[in-house]
Structure formats: structure tokens, C-alpha cells
Specification:
mainly alpha, two-stranded antiparallel ribbon, Farnesyl Diphosphate Synthase, homodimer, 1% strand
Chain lengths: 296, 296
């Protein structure tokens, strides 16, 4: 575990360096918009999605890896993730004041700017992704995966059902699986799938990685649900217990803490079994372990 | 003019038919989200952006035109346009209750759903665009144009400066040109440029069309500013005079009605002069005429 923590730390620093290159303080567009985008983008975060894409790409590409192929694609995933967080935190949605230990975007820049900064991050993610030196066929495939997994059948669809479940106080096994698979697992799976496409994976490998990705993604969200119940505010970067208080439909709510822990562990093991069928996936397996064991 | 009105009417009906095909009532994703997306998408509108893309594509492609190449691309522009309108109307931004004669999205579905419906339309626009049978090279080029012209240097950047100008009550010749070129002209130019790329235009033609597109786009927004002062609520589909009351930075505010009319006419003439250098652009010229003469 200490090795993988070290790996994740180094990779996070690398992603952060590239964010500074791709969206520096000075550049095109209104400076206040740029400031609002950078504020949330640089407010911390584990960079799990870009790192999954990079790690998967490198597992497949081996010695022939090129930063100019994968980094614009990987960092664009963090732009998109940040866009969903900014909009999620808005007063009309989750109404969160704190994110990663800092005031949320709308608390600092106001609601109008937070909405537009989210929109801008999303649009600029495509701008950035298209700067990759991958060939057009692969870029199109990646965009197809991304727009499908983020769209109405993926992240945004999951967010809508999440809000509905919270409002209607309807939460059961089917509902929580539906929300978690879409809101979180689709994006985690997409990050791995996109890395695989960028690396030129064959059909069989791609299928295995997608299956493993779904399980890792689901485990990731279950652990998020657990941490919301068990973490300290310092570890979490926001007030713990907020899911329960706001009536969110979580794995812990449906199955309790003990079963949630068992499910996360089981899903991780199933993912590792799948990854064992693919060479050079040691680090990916390590990340899966980390995701289940993390305390933040 | 009656010919071009007939043409625009027929083409609008065609675009509307394709929207029904691409986003039918029943399909993937939460039904309420789909309903909110369809509500604004089908609430009317001239469909100027898709029509400009289709018309430009056909001018270049001639007999070899294929609906399966251009329609997904053209309709995706209306998804994006609708996304910007839904977010623009939100209480935190323009706070509009009425759009195209109907209650705005957040008035019907609430703010949370309006934010997510806007996000979803934007994401699904890429999903749709990528269904085009154009080759990958052209799809990548089109997405590059789009994400650049909608991003921080284009539409979203323009929206931010628009809000700043309204709040700070700063409005002069430079400011209004900056806002209008980004908020409106970039998208109109992009629609023409995208049609041209889809049709396989050569570099010289592309350059001329982009120049003409900027002028048509600027004329379009100037006429919008004029109509906000001079239209009836029935023609406009919303309360006239709102720009002035809310302190918006408009062409009419800076130059007055008479000069605004002259500028729109002049820009249109300059665009027509450019289009005269390209064969088969009669309909495009007709649309430019319509844009300046329209009363809605």
C-alpha cells in the first residue's frame, strides 16, 4: 500500500503540473472565468480518473507511451469531473458550502459564475482532449465513450435519479445500484476504457477492462458512502454525515456499514480477478486496493 | 424574401422531425430529464444554426449530399444552442420567465433540473454529432471548431463579459463588439464553418465563409438588440425592452436605433459581397437578407 500511495502522489503531482500547462493563470477568455475554473480545478482531489486513464494506457502501450498522446486526454477527465462537482454543489442541487476543505465555487464566485465555470470546464475538456496527438479514429472512439458515459445514460442521468430519490425518499437495492452505477461507476469505467482505447487495446482486453472498471467504480462509490459516515471533517474535506442528514440514497443506508464494507471488498476482489487475465496490470490492481482501503 | 421564408419554414420542419428521431419521448435515461430536455428543444425557435450548417454543406457538396452525414451534426448545434439558452435564463443569470412565448425551463421543471437538462443537452450534442457518417478526420475538425467557438474564447466567454458589463454598468463600443462577437457571432460563424468542413470545402472557401459568418453573426445580434426595443411581445415571445431595463450592453444602447439598423445592413452587404465569390451561395445570401429583415 505504501508503494501505491507513493505512486498516486507522484502521478497526482504530474497531473497538477499539466493542469498548470493547459490552463495557466494568463490566457484566452475573461480572466474572472479562468480564475473560477482554476479555483475548483486546483482545489485538490485525488486525480483518480486521469491516473486510471494514464495507468491503463501505459499498461497496454508499454515502452511506446507518449505523454503528448495521453496527457491531454487524461487531464480532460479531471476538467469534466470538476464540472460535475461545481454543478453538484450548487444551491439548487446539493447546496454544499465546502468541497475538499475549501469553500465551494459558488460560495467564492457567486452562482452565475459557478454555473458558467462548470459549463466552461466541460467545453474546454473537449478542446483539450482534441489536442492529443492520437489519430482521429481513436479520438472519435474516445469521444464516443466519454459522451455516452457522461450523458443521460451515465453521470448526468445518475445525478437526476439521485436528486429524485432524495426528494421522494425512495431508496432500495435497485435504486442505489442504478444511481451508483451511473453517477460514479460509468465515469470510472470510462476513464479505464479511454486509457485502453488510447493505448490501442484489442477487443478482448477492452471488454475485461470495462468489466473490471465497473466493479472498481462501484466499490469507489460504496467507499465514499462509508467514509461519509465514518470520517473526520479533516479527512473528508467536508462535513461528514451529510448524506444521511439530507436523505441521500447510499449503499450504507440500504445495506448498513458492515455489508457495505464486505461489498466493496468483494467487488475489488472480482476486479482483481479480471485484471489478473491481463498482463502489466499490477499498478491498476494496486489502485483498486487503494480505493477500498483509503480513508479520504 | 417570401421564397426564403418558405425555404426556412421547410428546413425548420425538417430539423424538428430529426429532433424527434434523435431524442424521442421514450428512450435511455431518466424520463423526467428527457422531458425537460425535449421541452426546451421543442419550444420553437428558428433553427438558424442547423439551417446555416445544412445550407452551407449543400452549397459545397452539391448532388453528393447525404442526410446521414450532415443532419446529426446540424441538429447537435441546436442542442448546444438550447443548452446555452436554458442556463442563460436561470435566476442566477438573466432570470427570464419567458422564452419563445413559453415559461422557461426552470419555471416548469425547477432550477436543479434546468441546470442538469442544460448539461445533458450539451453532452448529448457530442453523442449525436458523433453519429454522423462523416470520416473521423472531419469529425475531429468539426469538434475542434465547436469546442473552440463555444468555449472560453467564444460563447461562454461572451456570456461572462455580458454579465460583468450588466453588473458594472460598463458599456461602450469596444465592450459591445467584444460581447457580440463572442456570444453570438462565434456560434453563427461556427455553424457555417462546420457545414463547410462537413462538405469538404477547400481552404480558400473556408476562409471566405468564416469571414462572411462573422459578419452575418454580428448582424444577427444587432437585429436581436433592435427587436428587443421595437417588437411586440407576441412577435418576440418574451417581454420587449428587457435588455434596456436590465442594463444590458447592446448595440442600440451604444449607437442608437438608426445607426444599429445601418450597421446591420452594412454587415449583411459585406457578407453578401464575400459570398458572391463562392458559387451556389444564393440561399446563404437569402438567409443573410432574412436575418436583417426579420421581425422575430
Amino acid at each position: 500500500m505504501s508503494d501505491i500511495r507513493e505512486y498516486l502522489k507522484k502521478r497526482k503531482e504530474e497531473v497538477d503540473r499539466y493542469i498548470e500547462i493547459y490552463l495557466p493563470e494568463e490566457g484566452e477568455g475573461p480572466s474572472l472565468l479562468r480564475k473560477a475554473m482554476r479555483y475548483s480545478l486546483l482545489a485538490g482531489g485525488k486525480r483518480i480518473r486521469p491516473i486510471l486513464a494514464i495507468t491503463t494506457y501505459e499498461a497496454i502501450k508499454g515502452e511506446n507511451k507518449k505523454n503528448e498522446e495521453i496527457m491531454p486526454v487524461a487531464v480532460s477527465l479531471e476538467y469534466i469531473h470538476t464540472f460535475t462537482l461545481i454543478h453538484d454543489d450548487l444551491p439548487a442541487l446539493d447546496n454544499d458550502d465546502l468541497r475538499r476543505g475549501k469553500p465551494t465555487n459558488h460560495k467564492v464566485f457567486g452562482e452565475a459564475m459557478a454555473i458558467l465555470a462548470g459549463d466552461a470546464l466541460f467545453i474546454e475538456s473537449f478542446n483539450l482532449l482534441l489536442k492529443s496527438t492520437l489519430n482521429s479514429e481513436n479520438l472519435v472512439k474516445i469521444m464516443q465513450v466519454l459522451s455516452h458515459e457522461i450523458g443521460i445514460s451515465g453521470v448526468i442521468g445518475g445525478q437526476v435519479v439521485d436528486i429524485e430519490a432524495e426528494k421522494e425518499r425512495t431508496c432500495d437495492e435497485d435504486r442505489v445500484k442504478f444511481i451508483h452505477e451511473r453517477k460514479t461507476a460509468s465515469f470510472i469505467r470510462a476513464s479505464i476504457e479511454i486509457g485502453a482505447v488510447a493505448g490501442g487495446a484489442d477487443e478482448k482486453t477492452l471488454k475485461l477492462l470495462k468489466e473490471a472498471g465497473t466493479k472498481i467504480g462501484l466499490a469507489f462509490q460504496i467507499v465514499d458512502d462509508i467514509l461519509d459516515e465514518t470520517s473526520t471533517p479533516e479527512e473528508l474535506g467536508k462535513t461528514p454525515g451529510k448524506d444521511r442528514m439530507s436523505g441521500k440514497c447510499t449503499w450504507v443506508k440500504v445495506y448498513g456499514l458492515k455489508r457495505a464494507r464486505e461489498d466493496a471488498e468483494r467487488l475489488k476482489n472480482e476486479a482483481v480477478d479480471l485484471l489478473n487475465l491481463i498482463p502489466h496490470t499490477e499498478i491498476l490492481k494496486g489502485i483498486a486496493e487503494f480505493i477500498v482501503k483509503r480513508t479520504y
